[in-house]
Amino acid sequence: MSIVLSQATIEDTRGLMEFMDKVWKKDHILSKDKELFLYEFQEENYLNIIIAKDEKESIVGIFGFIKYNSSSLPDIAGSLWKVDPNIKEPLLGLRLREYFVKNIPHRFFAAPGAGLQTKPIYKVLKMNWHRMKQYYIVNDTLSSFKVIQNPQIKKIEYLFNNNITIKKMQDINEIETFVFDTNIVPTKDIHYMKKRYLNHPIYSYDIYYLKKISTIVNIFVCRLVQVNDTKVYRIVDFFGDLEYLGSIASFCYKYIKDNSIEYIDFINHGLNEESLIQSGFSLLDFESNKTIVPNFFEPFLSQNVPVYCVSDKTEKEFRQFKADGDQDRPNQLQVMP
Prior knowledge:
Largest sheet: 8 strands, mixed
Order of helices and strands: EHHEEEEHEHEEEEHEEEHEHEEEE
CATH topology of the largest domain: Aminopeptidase
Shape: globular
Helix content: 10-25%
Distance between the termini: 45 Å
Oligomer: single chain
CATH superfamily of the largest domain: Gcn5-related N-acetyltransferase (GNAT)
Radius of gyration: 21 Å
Number of domains: 2
């Protein structure tokens, strides 16, 4: 069988959506909602997907990717890696990834959401494999919970500092002075923030920034989830210094109490565990089912599910968060914003 690999173009959209519906996930929103599909992957006339076609011009394999910044050598996340199991083409999945590596210029590759079944493949590729950690803060003013189960409850003292202010961003210009540290990988930029959060066609994100006097030292991004007639809040991205985690935890604690939200959680890799615990977060123990802090809401799954991430080997500081790659995306056609 003759298999040809290339980067997809707009003309491949219909074939890709049909492939995803048939081979990847039946009735997934990305196989049904063309607007969302193009929003995620279109870059001018190209799609950020490597495709494999057979001699009939049918798509038989895909390797999607997402750029973390708009530079000429961006950091990149993987997405939608799938080969039609009926195609008897040895190592086609690895060929797709190799084509991406050779033909899509990038500085660093990292992505959360890798399935355990792919761990041996990434080991062969000599990439790093990590299990991300999930932290949470509970609203201790509630008498019962509908989502979280048997949580560790901490009372957090609100930290007030005249030099520290935390505000919700109303305009992207408010954070344009923030310096995205290129020694932290993956490195993101304002262009990424606009597309990933500010202009998302379905989800609504809250972007906060922390100022010390007049300098922005932290940005963190949250999303509200409504489920089981209750609400939970999620920190899905984070930028900046860990020194101010206490102020951020205090702010979040007050916010969930003021808005009758069950809890806030924070899935990440690369942040200092001791700093997060001292700031007021509790660490979820994946080895025990005593406490349940769900991760999946579309559909809702009332169990602990760890998230794994992979990365190129690097000497730089590596961080990953819930919204990196394609993890914090809509999965169903009818979703709450």
